[in-house]
């Protein structure tokens, strides 16, 4: 049974056992574009990747399934060298603690996503980044573009162009990196992990 057959079986829910860890060569390979129309398996895979993220963000389900919380997942992390990514970024409650009007700031499956334009300004998350494929903490600023324009296709083969900034921009860049064989710690300054470049935005 192929990897995609296993992952898309009706009874299968993606869990941590499906996610490969650093050292696996698939994480360093440049993934292949998907072709349209997509196969049923590629559509189902996208939906299951998004469901994994939902499960991982639900405290009860995550505990039951033994999941680490995630906001993004790329097909190469499932040992599938295809340009498929899923992102699920929740909106946070406001300062008074009221729930957000919209549950998610970003909720989508992107096929063949690529950055087509970006800001000169760099940005990094203050607390650094983690990755479901990396079972250790790697401290340091992961330097990325503050703003990006991304082209991608949805499951119906329709092309979209979105402009992203802040946290959403960081999440999507992290996942697109996975489809290019790049790990987040490749973008940390080895000599000075917390170096701040000129004009760099540090996102709290």
Automatic annotation (TrEMBL):
Enzyme Commission code: 3.5.1.88
Catalytic residues identified in the record: 175
Superkingdom as given in the UniProt entry: Bacteria
InterPro entries, sorted: Peptide_deformylase (IPR023635), Peptide_deformylase_sf (IPR036821)
Cofactor info, note text: Binds 1 Fe(2+) ion.
Binding site for Fe cation: 131, 174, 178
Keywords: Hydrolase, Iron, Metal-binding, Protein biosynthesis
Names of the cofactor(s): Fe(2+)
Record keyword Iron present: yes
Any one GO BP annotation for this protein: translation
Pfam families: Pep_deformylase
Catalyzed reaction equations: N-terminal N-formyl-L-methionyl-[peptide] + H2O = N-terminal L-methionyl-[peptide] + formate
MF terms in GO: metal ion binding; peptide deformylase activity
Record-stated family: Belongs to the polypeptide deformylase family.
Chain's role: Removes the formyl group from the N-terminal Met of newly synthesized proteins. Requires at least a dipeptide for an efficient rate of reaction. N-terminal L-methionine is a prerequisite for activity but the enzyme has broad specificity at other positions.
Name the UniProt record assigns to this protein: Peptide deformylase
Native species: Streptococcus intermedius B196
């Amino acid at each position: 049974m192929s990897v995609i057959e296993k992952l898309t079986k009706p009874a299968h829910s993606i869990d941590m056992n499906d996610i490969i860890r650093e050292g696996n060569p698939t994480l360093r390979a440049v993934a292949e574009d998907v072709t349209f129309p997509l196969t049923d398996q590629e559509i189902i895979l996208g939906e299951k990747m998004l469901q994994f993220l939902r499960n991982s963000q639900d405290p009860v389900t995550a505990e039951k399934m033994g999941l680490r919380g995630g906001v993004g997942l790329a097909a190469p992390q499932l040992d599938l060298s295809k340009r498929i990514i899923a992102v699920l970024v929740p909106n946070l409650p406001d300062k008074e603690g009221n729930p957000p009007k919209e549950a998610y700031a970003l909720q989508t499956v992107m096929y063949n996503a690529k950055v087509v334009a970006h800001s000169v300004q760099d940005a990094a998350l203050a607390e650094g980044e983690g990755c479901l494929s990396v079972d250790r903490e790697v401290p340091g600023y992961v330097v990325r573009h503050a703003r990006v324009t991304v082209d991608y296709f949805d499951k119906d083969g329709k092309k979209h162009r979105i402009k992203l900034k802040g946290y959403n921009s960081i999440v999507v860049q992290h996942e697109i990196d996975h489809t290019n064989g790049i790990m987040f710690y490749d973008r940390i300054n080895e000599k000075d992990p917390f170096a701040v470049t000129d004009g760099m935005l540090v996102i709290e």
